[in-house]
Specification:
mainly alpha
């Protein structure tokens, strides 16, 4: 007849308890590592969001500066055209004054 070996059962139970305790400890350690990784992930997400917001702000400022530079270039071109027009007017006035001087000289010679 087969008998139940209580000594073997107690020894198996002790080994099983040790394994359960070891696995429980490993599970606890794994949970702590997971918590640390989740916190790291959360911190990294926050840093990425902050960096993204800073990048968006920088892009907006860059676009504004680019627009102002383009406007400055347009303004510069406009001013050059205006100066050219004023220069043309000055040349016309100069020609008129030269003509007046010639007329005055010739009228002075007449009188």
């Amino acid at each position: 007849m087969l008998g139940y070996d209580y000594d073997n059962d107690a020894s198996s139970s002790g080994v099983l308890d040790d394994k359960i305790e070891k696995l429980t400890s490993e599970l606890h350690d794994a949970r702590q590592k997971i918590d640390k990784l989740q916190q790291f992930n959360h911190d990294l997400d926050r840093e990425l969001a902050d960096t993204g917001a800073e990048l968006a702000s920088t892009i907006i400022k860059l676009n504004e500066v680019t627009r102002r530079l383009e406007n400055s270039e347009d303004e510069r071109k406009s001013l050059i055209m205006e100066l050219d027009g004023l220069n043309d007017q000055l040349e016309k006035h100069e020609q008129f004054m030269k003509s007046l001087v010639k007329i005055l000289k010739s009228s002075h010679n007449i009188g």
